[in-house]
Amino acid sequence: MMHLKTIEGQFDAKGLKFAIIATRFNDFVVDRLVGGAVDYLTRCGGSREDMTLIRLPGAFEMPVAAKKLAASGKYDGVIALGAVIRGATPHFDFVANEATKGLAQVALESGVPVGFGLLTTDTLEQAIERAGSKGGNKGVEAASAVLETIRVLEQL
Hints:
The protein is an alpha/beta fold. It is 45% helix and 19% strand. It has one domain (18-153): Rossmann fold. The protein has helices spanning 27-43, 62-72, 91-110, 124-129, 138-153, and strands at residues 18-23, 51-56, 77-85, 114-121. One of its GO terms (biological process) is riboflavin biosynthetic process.
């Protein structure tokens, strides 16, 4: 097999600054995501002093805050954590779609990695599973993705 130069990110958060956006809506789930992200970054050498938690009402507000945080130059990465649980109306679809598109747009336009930890589930049980039980913790996964992406981008 041909050997290729490979660029990979190291999981070392030392010296990096993170903005963690967390929604208040469904906070009983979101708080578990935040705990997972903070714990993960700390285990990777990050300092709690280099993490800023920003609380917002809901997922729809996340992109505008992420945009301002990314543009500030104060953060190496933004981690967006929230939970949108399907209800009886189409509101879920509008919020989930626009928040998702907006967060992706922020990352592309700013060049600052944005971790997508917005749960979009059909039931409360599914959200709980993804916030630290059977489905792992998506807050950890979002933090890990941001950390690895930061370290890869440093090498490009």
